[in-house]
Amino acid sequence: MIKPLLFTYLAMVIGVLVMDFRHLKQAAPINRWLSYGLIGIGIASWLYVTTLNKTIYITVWMSHVIQRLLPLP
Q: Among 11, 35, 53, 70, which is least packed by CB within 10 angstroms?
């Protein structure tokens, strides 16, 4: 049941990306590269979460990094 939904979602994402890339060509260079970076990070995290058997959620990993950086009581 999950696989057909996953492929439907993937098809919709590809459609949105095609439309976004058309509009991003008109944006300023810094906005374009920031948008490309966010899209790339989003795609990478989606692929990471959907392809692994043992999922490590990015928010949990980020919380471990932040706990090391922030002085907590």
A: 53
